[in-house]
Design the sequence.
């Protein structure tokens, strides 16, 4: 086994696809978007990426185990074809983040990907009313169409830069001359945030031109609203409020 | 010295053996089972696995030192031959867990192992009355015979998946097409748990068809009962109760 | 991508240049000096050094991303030519510090660098009146000219040695027979310290014989004075004083 | 630069020398013994061992820097020749401990070392009256002569085994068939302990047959006695006692 090991299970013919990455992160925004795409549209598992820099772990579903991996699915839409990248875990260390990203870009090169979108959340520290989507790109040319679709560019935001595989898809993508953009939904940062995911997904629809059902994302958003309402009631009553830590990634 | 170094000391002829792994973990359940097998049945050291990813340490017995290693013993039974894997330590990092597991599967391949059992404990957080054994497998076919022997499959349990070498024996075993199952004895998680080990060992006997004396495991269980009783008395008296940390792995 | 990857963007002809390193560190002294040189003199980006041992991160400026890197700029002065090394981050681990330093020394060798200056701050733990500059060198011959320029040598100071890339430029430089010296401006250690940077820059001017405008460094020093004054007023009033952590790297 | 890099500066002709290792550790016992040998007897630097797994750091003495290294000195005595190994730092990680130890054993092989002594301290947690020296060996044959010289073997002590380079010199030495023993001076574990070092040095003299002046070790022991006395006075007075942390490695 190599440190980074791509195992192909299908080799679909895709026409200059767009790659969309949504690994776990702030508010699980990127992961929620990509899960929605894989579940609601017709998707095909293309390959799994295994690595000694991912956690040494299997998940269990109906008593059957699956080794921790990054999965790449192909989706054919009326508009551009998609390659979507997701998983339940990030790399364990810096070398792992670089290696996974390079492997993802190798897969992108194999399928002649013309554009990379890395999805994520940007924490605001407070509950959100209007869900803005902030952008960052590897080149200036990408910004006008993104702005036309509703993405905001705010100078040097996010101030701390973009970390992990999302950041490196832009950093290493730029070195490999693949146009790449990061779309970050605003989110409190305290909770899994389907509303932020919906805002990002609306932008993606507009940009790429496909349509997807929002049903399950809206359901999940309603569930989270209930959670938030209960928290607010608890705060107003005498009960001690849950800490930030309690709220992080409820759901 | 390579990062993962197998040193063979014997090359017994085994017929399609079953590999049983019991490294330290929750309640030391897996390790207790495997120690019982090595001590009570006629066993032969086959190889030691050394690694720069194990702790940089020697143990001392009668003033003689032994380098930290994973040991593999061969046991011939009336039923299937066994290869049992144990040791006093886990790997220090993720790369180590993957590397050790691959080395163990290399050993399994050399001896034409037909089935892998990874043993462990699953923490319940409370003292146990009935010791259930939960299973997870790499393939569906393995589940019926395990259920017949008393193993329970409970949907997505354990919720956190299975970590370390036990988990990877299934994760990497599946990729190498070796049937592998994990048997996890329920245990409080606070104490070394010979009773949970006994429950797992009874399942193994049934599955494989060998017989082993339970004497020393039962003795050890009685000792632990005394420890638990004293703790309960202390809790009922005014003395401050020992913390979880105090109780962890007493014995 | 290699673990340490030098990407050349220009190959200027330099005559036996002096290499000056200023990465982030105590009081950001070295980084401030090098930024001043790059901004005030005519500079040209020569190469970027990327590494899997740097943080997995991009920075964002005007919505455009840049992968974390170490940058090397060439500056032609009336006196010696300069190669200046800077960046926003240090390596993440020990192997990274060694690897980055060796890559920097490879660049130095390519341009026939005759002298290396590693710049930094030495923390005194108290606010400074007179900003001394302490030196350490790989060879005795370097000390007389440094002392003539105002650098102090104080026996075994700094007591804890010199860590990170600055330290290794001397440690590995000595092994490669490149004369190397470390110039450390005294600084409280609590704040970004443009005054300490100015003291180091004055020494460099004297040593190498170039001239640079101090304007922006002095402006920044004035801003920091305001910060310090406000802190002192807060301390004298009843308000709870900011902690050391609050003050670290304000600015 | 390799990960582990031996740089020879002299190649003395030694007759079947004994290798003695004393790196920093509990009570600095091993390091104190080896420093005494290098200072009091005629010693010659044979090689330095550099590694990317040692701290990225230089020390400074009279303004001149030295890269962190492990040093090996040769000492010719009336009895056996000695190769003594010391330094100011341990490796940073498990891979580093294994790699440094293998490099030391490569040096031992080059000079046909016939016996390895790894020196250290064993913490007792209380102030010591009689300084015992506990032993551990790779083979039984080594124990009788050690016992005759006053070394005690106490079953499975030290219970936690022996960690770091000292432990691995036995663990990896055994695999390379070099007789190796660890001599551990009892020490409180709270303070640098020259008395414990003296007890270990007396055993070494007896074993190998050389003689060395104890002057500076005894001086240092007297200084430490003063420190301990002051601590005891402070404890008896109303002043709050220094914590364990305060006392660790005073001196």
Sequence:
């Amino acid at each position: 086994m190599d440190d980074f090991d791509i195992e192909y299970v299908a080799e679909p013919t895709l026409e200059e696809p767009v790659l969309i990455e949504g690994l776990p992160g702030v508010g699980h925004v990127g992961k929620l978007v990509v899960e929605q795409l894989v579940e609601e549209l017709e998707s095909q598992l293309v390959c799994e990426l295994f690595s000694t820099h991912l956690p040494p772990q299997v998940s269990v579903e109906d008593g059957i185990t699956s080794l921790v991996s990054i999965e790449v699915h192909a989706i054919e839409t009326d508009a551009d074809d998609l390659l979507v990248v997701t998983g339940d875990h990030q790399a364990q260390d810096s070398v792992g983040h670089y290696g996974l990203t390079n492997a993802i870009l190798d897969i992108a090169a194999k399928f002649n990907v013309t554009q990379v979108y890395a999805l994520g959340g940007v924490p605001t520290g407070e509950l959100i009313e209007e869900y803005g989507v902030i952008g960052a790109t590897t080149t200036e040319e990408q910004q006008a169409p993104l702005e036309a679709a509703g993405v905001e560019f705010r100078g040097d935001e996010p101030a701390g830069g973009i970390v992990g595989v999302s950041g490196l898809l832009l950093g290493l993508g730029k070195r490999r001359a693949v146009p790449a953009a990061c779309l970050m939904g605003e989110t409190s940062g305290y909770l899994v945030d389907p509303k932020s995911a919906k805002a990002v997904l609306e932008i993606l629809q507009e940009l790429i031109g496909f349509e997807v059902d929002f049903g399950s994302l809206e359901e999940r958003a309603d569930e989270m609203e209930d959670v938030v309402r209960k928290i607010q009631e608890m705060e107003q009553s005498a009960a001690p409020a849950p800490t930030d830590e309690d709220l992080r990634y409820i759901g």
Notes: Chain B is about 35% helix and 25% strand. Chain B has one domain: 4-247. The radius of gyration of chain B is 18 Å. The first helix of chain B runs from residue 29 to 40.
